[in-house]
Amino acid sequence: MKTPRWAAGLVALGLILAACGAQQATSTGGADGDGESAERDMRIVVVTHGQASDPFWSVVVNGVNQARDDLGIEVEYNAPQGDDFDVVAMAQLIDTAVASEPDGLVISNPDPSGLEAAIQGALDAGIPVLSINSGSDVYADLGLLTHIGQTEFEAGVGAGERMAAAGVTNTLCVNQEVGNVALDLRCQGFAEGLGGIPSRVVAVDLSDATGAQAGIQAELAGDPTIDGILTLGPTGAAPALLALEGNDAVQLATFDLSPEVLTAIDEGRMLFAIDQQQYLQGYLGVSVMALYVQYGLLPGGGDIIRTGPGFVTPDNAAQVIELSSEGIR
């Protein structure tokens, strides 16, 4: 029997994951009973809350597309239209995906309560589901195979510890999607990591970048003792950088990478960025699902597959910039 290209690719991926120390646990419903490759096409649907045009999510999509190409399978990527966080639209996209009867479903889960019914609909239909990026704290309770990403609270703690070590005394956590559980956890972890240093959450609307910049400037004008700001993504970092032009008294850091963020770090205008390696989230999300669908294999036995956090600082920013230009970091 001729082995399909994508089946050979999955074997190679399995060997790589095993070599990295990941344990593979066999479960029912993936491979054929005789263990041979299934002679059929495979289609995986990815539904997230992030548009491919977003500088962060475009890298996730690059990882998704590379896995698709490497494995030679069919993969669809969908996200709500528009700039606003829209959990209703995302739930509808999951429902639509379920109706199309894919072999597997990969999702982000920024609002577990808002997406629970749609996720359960997929599971009831016998479609395996795993989460990437957001939802690390609830994936097991919801019955998902695994989660691929970073644990957001712990990443926030690391940010707070680094900010405290830099000597800040009063901070803001700028949240562009209050109610997005992953982002809320980042701010909560940040406050924890600061170890008693004051931190206040400030909501901004990034669909109005000028308004977001003005809002940050108003916070600084209202409290001149603020000397540390954490933003929760590159789109939040951009107005913060503008708000801090000419102001060297405030330390700025952010979650996630973009060319603008990396340049700011390299030039010393930003303290650090937290790198959750979102390319891996897209690539491994598709690849791990394909391994499960074809062979019933699950790296890590269902435990979280961590892609971060890592920290990009002025010491290593230059070496990351080239990969960012290639859409990998």
Second rung of CATH, namely the architecture of the largest domain:
3-Layer(aba) Sandwich
Low-confidence stretches: 18-39
Give a quick account of the main beta sheet: strands, pairing sense, barrel closure: 6 strands, parallel
Q: How many strand units?
A: 14
> What's the helix count?
12
From the spread of the alpha carbons, the general shape counts as globular
CATH topology of the largest domain: Rossmann fold
Structure description:
It is a single chain. This protein is an alpha/beta fold and 329 residues long. The protein has 2 domains: 5-150 and 277-309, Rossmann fold (3-Layer(aba) Sandwich); 152-275, Rossmann fold (3-Layer(aba) Sandwich), CATH 3.40.50. It contains 12 helices and 14 strands. The chain has helices spanning 5-19, 55-71, 87-99, 112-124, 139-142, 152-165, 181-193, 209-222, 234-243, 259-266, 278-295, 317-325, and strands at residues 24-26, 43-47, 74-78, 104-107, 129-132, 147-149, 171-175, 199-203, 228-231, 251-255, 272-275, 297-299, 305-306, 310-312. Helix 4 links the parallel strand 4 (104-107) and strand 5 (129-132). It starts with a helix and ends with a helix.
Q: Summarize this, please?
A:
It contains twelve helices and 14 strands. The chain has 329 residues and is α/β, with parallel strands linked by helices.
Helix-strand layout with pairing:
Elements: H1 5-19, E1 24-26, E2 43-47, H2 55-71, E3 74-78, H3 87-99, E4 104-107, H4 112-124, E5 129-132, H5 139-142, E6 147-149, H6 152-165, E7 171-175, H7 181-193, E8 199-203, H8 209-222, E9 228-231, H9 234-243, E10 251-255, H10 259-266, E11 272-275, H11 278-295, E12 297-299, E13 305-306, E14 310-312, H12 317-325
Helix pairs in contact: 1-11, 2-11, 3-4, 6-7, 8-9, 10-12
